[in-house]
Design a protein that fits this description.
single chain; 596 residues; alpha+beta; seven-stranded mixed beta sheet
């Protein structure tokens, strides 16, 4: 992580440099920092373990991620300059064109091993029809350039054409984004202040009504669509500082939501107000003069309605000829309470919809676990309570992210497919939630399984950081295994499946397993490292279960059985790592369970 380019006027880059936990990812550190901001990730290490393609070696892309329950694909390139340059290398941007070709089309056996697992995952998501967005990123610490954007644009054109050809039933927005010095600061500013456009505006309105409570007031009315278009022409996406999703852009498909907004504005402008859901705007202040029918506003940040605003804003002059006839239902909100303001942004934002975890946070199981974690050293567990936007910027040492806790519990207890492919289901479905967060699960058991997942991720990172030419034959085998998506969670499941052999005693209920000492999550990780390093020798036994993204239960079960057999054969010959693990079985803990 280079520090030579930090300056007083670049707080975003300084925030990145303060993230010493990302330095282990080398040239991909800045790429991961941006991913955490843009995707609101609560656990960057688990994300990196599956999204990075091959940490140290030259390839055509650095990151491939399928996120938001399979609705969004991201193909990313990262670069951090060691010396000052006028722009980022164009060849890294051009490589994205080759990468999308490999990911989207052609026989899988012709795809480089570093990308094959990612290609399987991306193609499966597209074939399933869940993908709505496909984004190509190039993240670097240099000024943005037209040449780089031209290359990225070509990659986007290639991706769009291949998706239409290979997956004709899909409806996918393809976009590209160069995130250099300027854009990085904009991304960071967006996390610090919900309103970036602080100009004063005057709207002619037909009337309206006001509601208010402690710390906030809101005025509901309608504004002219052409006024919204005029504001967009000056400020564009800066208007959407509270809206993480921004404006997606548009394709020609009639089923595309942005295309539909534009068509309504052009062909039925008088009906726009009743056909469209309207927008919500955060403001610093407002005042309404009923006599003049004017609403004066200070500052604008569109928290909901980014698609509407962007679609109207990008109408051509000819397309906007009838826009004066269109009105947009609008709610202007002023808030002086920071905690309420954060909730306004969260619950109005289409990308931050109310999650099942918000309801589970009130479950007695989660309340008990939070109380138990108060006694675990150097650990923070929220149990469904979400943090603020700054959590994607500042490293919170000792935080056990909800998603990673759910994944490690599911995997350790024999359900790696649920852990990798259906994490959301854990929180959404009552029966699934009850099977993962059982009444007998304790904070110290979570530390045990979470520490194991971290140890596996650390082992993967260590292997992938070795240059290909420097790897031993065994390390190449381990790297080949870890390239498969979900391989880290399958390894956790395999260790959970042979835990009796590892600790040398019968276990009737694995949720009762804890370390004998009250370890912190970091200490638990260190405790697992010798076991993980020893058992990596048997990763080949698990490989057959990874070629279908862990979705074949029969293959997963057989792979874990084969792995367990090898551990049994090794335990007596090499007892050292096993005998030192220090796992105990504690009495059951029960808690009344409630439903959301």
């Amino acid at each position: 992580m280079q520090k030579h380019q930090a300056s007083a006027d670049r707080p975003g880059y300084r925030a990145f440099q303060a993230r010493d936990d990302l330095s282990t990812y080398g040239p991909n550190a800045l790429l991961l920092f941006i991913a955490q901001m843009r995707l609101s990730l609560d656990d960057i290490d688990t994300f990196a373990a599956n999204a990075l393609t091959d940490h140290s070696n030259d390839k055509k892309c650095d990151l491939v991620a399928v996120v938001y329950d399979g609705t969004k694909v991201i193909v990313g390139q990262g670069y951090e300059a060691k010396t000052a340059r006028s722009s980022a290398p164009e060849d890294k941007a051009a490589d994205a064109n080759t990468a999308v070709s490999w990911l989207l089309a052609g026989p899988l056996e012709t795809v480089p091993e570093t990308l094959r697992g990612a290609a399987v995952e991306v193609r499966s998501a597209l074939a399933a029809g869940t993908v709505a967005e496909f984004e190509i990123w190039y993240v670097h610490n240099l000024p943005e350039s037209a040449n780089v954007q031209r290359e990225l644009g070509q990659a986007a054109t290639t991706a769009d054409a291949l998706i239409k050809r290979e997956f004709p039933e899909s409806d996918v927005d393809v976009a590209f984004l160069e995130i250099g010095q300027n854009q990085l600061e904009k991304e960071y500013s967006r996390t610090q202040a919900p309103i970036l456009v602080d100009d004063d505006f005057v709207f002619e309105v037909p009337g309206g009504f006001e509601l208010s409570a402690d710390g906030w007031s809101a005025f509901s009315t309608a504004i002219a669509a052409d006024a919204l278009r005029e504001i967009w022409s000056t400020h564009t996406t800066q208007l959407m500082s509270p809206n993480i999703r921004d404006y997606l852009g548009m394709v020609r498909s009639a089923s595309n939501i942005n295309f539909g907004i534009k068509e309504t504005a052009k062909s039925a402008p008088k009906n726009f107000a009743i056909f469209n859901n309207g927008i919500t705007i955060l403001v610093n202040d407002y005042s309404h003069d009923a006599a003049s029918r004017e609403l004066k506003v200070s500052g604008i940040g569109i928290v909901n309605g980014g698609q509407t605003t962007g679609a109207i804003g990008e109408l051509s002059t000819k397309e906007a000829e009838k826009l004066k006839e269109a009105a947009v239902m609008t709610r202007f909100v002023k808030c002086t309470d920071p905690s309420v303001l954060e909730d306004i942004v969260r619950f109005n934002n289409t990308q931050n919809k109310v999650e099942a975890t918000d309801f589970r946070s009130r479950d007695p199981i989660q309340e008990r676990l939070r109380a138990e974690f108060a006694k675990v050293p150097d650990a923070e567990y929220r149990g469904g309570r979400r943090g603020g936007a700054s959590d994607a910027i500042v490293r919170r040492r000792g935080l056990l992210a909800d998603s990673s806790v759910a994944q490690s519990l599911s995997a350790f207890h024999g359900r790696p497919n649920l852990a990798y492919n259906e994490t959301r289901t854990i929180w959404d479905n009552d029966a699934t939630y009850a099977s993962v967060f059982r009444e007998s699960v304790s904070a110290r058991h979570i530390v045990l399984v979470f520490g194991l997942l971290r140890a596996v991720d650390r082992a993967k990172q260590a292997i992938m950081s070795i240059a290909v030419n420097d790897r031993t034959e065994a390390q190449n085998r381990h790297a080949e295994y870890f390239r498969s998506r979900g391989s880290n969670l399958l390894f956790v499941a395999a260790i959970g499946g042979c835990i009796e052999t590892i600790i040398g005693r019968a276990v009737t209920d694995r949720t009762q397993l804890t370390f004998k000492k009250n370890f912190s999550p970091s200490e638990a990780t260190d405790r697992w490292i010798p076991i993980v390093e020893t058992l990596l020798a048997f990763s080949k036994q698990l490989s057959p279960a990874t070629d279908m993204g862990l979705k074949s239960q029969d293959r997963v079960a057989k792979a874990i059985d084969d792995f367990s057999s090898m551990v049994e054969a090794t335990r007596s010959a090499n007892p050292g790592p096993f005998d030192s693990i220090g796992v105990d079985i504690l009495p059951a803990v029960t808690t009344p369970r409630s439903k959301i």
